[in-house]
Specification:
- It is a single chain.
- The chain is of the alpha/beta class.
- It folds into two domains: 147 residues, Rossmann fold (3-Layer(aba) Sandwich), CATH 3.40.50; 196 residues, Dehydroquinate synthase-like, alpha domain, CATH 1.20.1090.
- It has 13 helices and eight strands.
- The chain has a six-stranded parallel β-sheet with strand order 1-8-5-4-2-3, with helices on both faces. A two-stranded antiparallel ribbon has the order 6-7.
- The chain starts with 14 loop residues before the first strand and ends in a 6-residue tail after the last helix.
- 48% of the residues are buried.
Length: 368
C-alpha cells in the first residue's frame, strides 16, 4: 500500500474549541505574527467581521480583510499571496467553509506565512487537515495539494457552528462517516501488514462512525433550539479535529477511496450541475458504491435510511450526474485509472464494475 507522505502530520499547531472562542483570535495571531490578512467569502465575512474586528482591534492589532468568492485554485492563491507579502501582512487567517479553509492554506503556502483557520461550518475537516483540495476557477477538480507542515491554529467557535444550516452540519457528518467506510477498501482487522499508523486511523474512524450515527440527530435538535450541548461539542470535535487526525495519521495511504473518487469525478465531469451540492453530500452518495465494493451491501439499507431521514441526496442523479451508459463507462475508466483501483488487476476491475453497476441501478430502484 503506497504511502504518500513520510511524516505523520497528526494535528494542527493549536486546536481550541468552545463557545465564543473567536474572541481569542488576537491571542492566536500574536503567537505567530503581528499583522493578519483575513480571508472569507461574502457570507462568512458578514458572519465573522464584527467579532474578528472586536478581537483584533481590541488588542491593537492592525489587519486587513479580503473577500474571495471563487474556488480554491492556484491562480487566485498566488495573486493573493503576492498581495499579502507586498502589503506587509505576516499571518493568513481563513474564516469560512471548506473552500475558504483550503484557499487560506494555499495562500499561506505561496506566501510562506503561518495560517490560522476559523471554520464557520463543519461540512468538512478542511480547517484542520494539512492539505487543500484544488480546482480550476470554473470548479473542476485538479488534485490535492499536500503540505509539509500542519495548520498553525484552528479556532472552532461552537456558537458560530451551532448556527450553521443543517445541511452543512450533515455534510460534515457524512464526510466523517466516509473515513471508516473507505478505510475498509483495503484494510481488514487483524492483518498486521498495513503501514504504521493505519491501524490507529482505522480504530479512530470506527469510533467516530459509531458516535456520529448515534449523536447526529440529537445535535440537530439542539441546534434548532439554539443550544450548545456537550453532545454537540463532542460531535464538532469529531467531525473537525478527530477526522483531521485520521487523515494525517494515515499519511495519504489511500485511506480515502471510492466515495471520494466518485466526488472528484463528479466535480470534474459535471461541474455545473453538481455545483449546488456539498462535498459531504456527494461523498455520502459515493458511500453506497464503497459499501458494495467492501462486500457490505447490507449496510446500504441503514445508510439510505439515514439519508432519507435527513433529506439528503440518495443517488448519483440527486447530485447532478447524468445517468447514461456513456457516463457509466466514463466513471468506470477514470476511477480505474485512479489510486483507488489497480487498472492492471483484472479481478479488481471486474469487482469494481459490478459495484458500479449496482450503484447505477440504485437510481432505478433495483437494488435497495
Amino acid at each position: 500500500m503506497a504511502i504518500r507522505e513520510e511524516s505523520f502530520r497528526i494535528g494542527c499547531g493549536r486546536y481550541i474549541q468552545g463557545k465564543g472562542y473567536i474572541a481569542r483570535l488576537h491571542n492566536e495571531v500574536a503567537r505567530v505574527g503581528t499583522r493578519p490578512l483575513v480571508i472569507g467569502d461574502d457570507t462568512t465575512v458578514a458572519i465573522t467581521r464584527e467579532k474578528i474586528t472586536a478581537s483584533l482591534q481590541g488588542a491593537g492589532i492592525d489587519f486587513g480583510i479580503y473577500t474571495h468568492n471563487g474556488t480554491c485554485n492556484h491562480e487566485d492563491a498566488k495573486i493573493l499571496a503576492e498581495y499579502a507579502v507586498k502589503e506587509g501582512f505576516d499571518v493568513i487567517v481563513g474564516a469560512g467553509g471548506g473552500v475558504i479553509m483550503d484557499f487560506a492554506k494555499l495562500c499561506a503556502y505561496y506566501a510562506a506565512l503561518p495560517v490560522i483557520n476559523i471554520p464557520t461550518s463543519s461540512a468538512t475537516c478542511a480547517s484542520y487537515a494539512p492539505l487543500s483540495v484544488c480546482y480550476t476557477r470554473e470548479g473542476r477538480t485538479v488534485g490535492t495539494h499536500h503540505y509539509e507542515y500542519e495548520v498553525d491554529a484552528v479556532i472552532a467557535d461552537t456558537e458560530i457552528l451551532a448556527a450553521q444550516p443543517a445541511n452543512l452540519f450533515l455534510a460534515g457528518v457524512f464526510d466523517a462517516l466516509a473515513k471508516y467506510v473507505e478505510i475498509k477498501h483495503r484494510y481488514s482487522e487483524g492483518d498486521e501488514s498495513y503501514p504504521m499508523g493505519l491501524d490507529y486511523a482505522y480504530v479512530m474512524a470506527k469510533r467516530s462512525f459509531s458516535l456520529l450515527t448515534e449523536k447526529a440527530a440529537g445535535c440537530l435538535e439542539s441546534m434548532a433550539k439554539g443550544e450548545i450541548t456537550e453532545e454537540f461539542e463532542n460531535v464538532i470535535f469529531t467531525v473537525i479535529a478527530a477526522t483531521g487526525v485520521i487523515s494525517g495519521i494515515a499519511r495519504g495511504s489511500n485511506q480515502t477511496a471510492l466515495a471520494h473518487k466518485f466526488y472528484e469525478m463528479t466535480r470534474r465531469l459535471f461541474p455545473e450541475t453538481a455545483r449546488p451540492y456539498l462535498h459531504g453530500e456527494i461523498v455520502g452518495v459515493g458511500l453506497l458504491l464503497q459499501n458494495h465494493y467492501n462486500g457490505e451491501e447490507e449496510a446500504n439499507e441503514y445508510l439510505l435510511g439515514l439519508m432519507k431521514k435527513y433529506h439528503m441526496p440518495c443517488c448519483a442523479a440527486d447530485v447532478g450526474v447524468e445517468m447514461t451508459d456513456e457516463v457509466f463507462e466514463d466513471y468506470y475508466a477514470r476511477i480505474c485509472d485512479s489510486s483507488a483501483i489497480d487498472k492492471n488487476d483484472a479481478a479488481m476491475c471486474e469487482r469494481f464494475r459490478k459495484s458500479l453497476t449496482y450503484f447505477w441501478n440504485i437510481q432505478r430502484g433495483e437494488n435497495v
